[in-house]
Amino acid sequence: MMFHCERAHSSESGSTNPLKIHKESDTDNPRVQQQSTKPRYPAVLEEALMKQGAKLLRSGASDEALGTALRQVLTEYHVSDQDAKVLLIRSINRLGAYPFALSLISASPTVDEEIQSIYVECLIRCGDFKKAQDILLDWKTGQSQLWEDNAEYLEQLSTIAYLGIDSNAAYSQLQMGSRSELPDLIRHAVRLGLLDVAEKLTGDGDFYYLCYYIQSLYAEGYVNKAKAKLAEIDPSFLMQTLPPYKESLYIYAEILHDKGQFSEAAAIFERLADQFPDMARARFAASSCYLHNTMNNLVGRIELYHPGEVEQTKIEKYMDDISEALQVIHSTNWHTIWSPAQSRNFPIPYSQVLQ
């Protein structure tokens, strides 16, 4: 299987929380609503931290080694102690070292809103649901600015913490109310690593919510789990036009592509492109399939016929052109891109992933 991982400083969907923070933060994350266009920290510094962190993750370094290396980067940039603390926690969190981030915050509490929100999410990720709930309740009853700005999301976070404590009772309560919030709850539960909670929210035999679960699993790097859930659905059922089915079918085709089943994947991508003309990525995906098929045919021709030097040179030139075309198509980001934090959920270690 081919895995596509982001380099250095790219947008990450799964390692930061979608909160509106009064202090400027996460300028590379479109889910965080900025109240100012001025970066909180120099972009070059944050890029250096993430580049170094991703490099160490690929080498299989421990979270403690990550922390040591990032502290050294901060020292080289002569950052103040307070800013260094915030940047270190932010970076460690974005790299998916949640227990380590939690220990850093616990050792030195701060009033920084962003770090407080990271703290609550890390508590949930690490299973301390009661403490997370207590903090969220304090924010709500105290009418904190953070709560007022992010009430809907923090209510969902509180519900997820409650589900972590008693998933059966909480899910029964959800069943009695509106189900419109279930897709977001499923997505956030998976993002926070609570797969058992997300599975309960999905329900039994409901393909509509199962598709949301599959999308969330795949987006967060749980590729094998997403494949297992996809196997529960007949692919023909995914041909419906509703968004969750469309996206799950795209994921199914993407998985076929990564398994080398290019013809089957191309047929699905072409169908999606025809059915949804504004889905340009499906066209690029189909092109990738065709180019890979052509490349495989050329390799097979060389192996089977052992062409002469002149013909082999021509074939190799053609293969080089195909490789360049594949690079251009890949740059369109038609394929899912996972952040370093999400890559920790891959079925193989990040250090063994094709870069």
Automatic annotation (TrEMBL):
Stretches for region Disordered: 1-40
Organism domain of life: Bacteria
UniProt feature, compositional bias: Basic and acidic residues: 1-10
InterPro entries: TPR-like_helical_dom_sf
Protein name: Tetratricopeptide repeat protein
Organism annotation: Fontibacillus phaseoli
Organism phylogeny: Bacteria, Bacillati, Bacillota, Bacilli, Bacillales
